[in-house]
Write the structure tokens for this entry.
Amino acid sequence: MFILGLTGSLGMGKSTTAKFFAEEGVPVHDADAVVHRLYEGEAAAAIEAAFPGSTRGGKVDRAKLGERVLSDPAALKRLEAIVHPLVAAARERFLAEAARSGAPVAVLDIPLLYETGGEARCDAVVVVTAPAEMQRARVFERPGMSEEKLAALTAKQLPDAEKRARADFIVDSGHGFEAARRQVREILAQVAKMPPKRN
């Protein structure tokens, strides 16, 4: 099975691109969705123990937790030590299930793929990009976004130009949905002819 990593900076259209892969019948592992589920269940008690007052009704209050960890690298490391092993276990279950079902390709949708060294687990990486002004407009459509929050989030991400330089494939989401959908189909056609590079 060929493992395709999917990544892209905030507001680039990565989630939409992931949907296009899913529409083509490709199983997609959404790392963010896994974190959301963990925050609503399995990880909540451990996070509350590490960050008292960060949960409500047995679920993580993302805004409260964000205030605690966004500008505190040590706190972020403590949070990652709780969440990352659970996310890794979910990813391994997903890959095993995709392989069992006979899927020729599986997509790992991971926002911080390069930043966490996740590309080593992939046979090729797709980076989703868009013009900077379009990215900015999309980001500020999100509820609760501010210049400070955007600066803190982008500080954790590699610059778009560096991601594009390291990518095997690029989807430019700046030309509309149909163009992005076509690019996804072209990538899948190319991947079908490529051998997996993981040993």
Q: What stands out?
A: The CA atoms of residues 125 and 167 lie 5 Å apart. The radius of gyration is 17 Å.
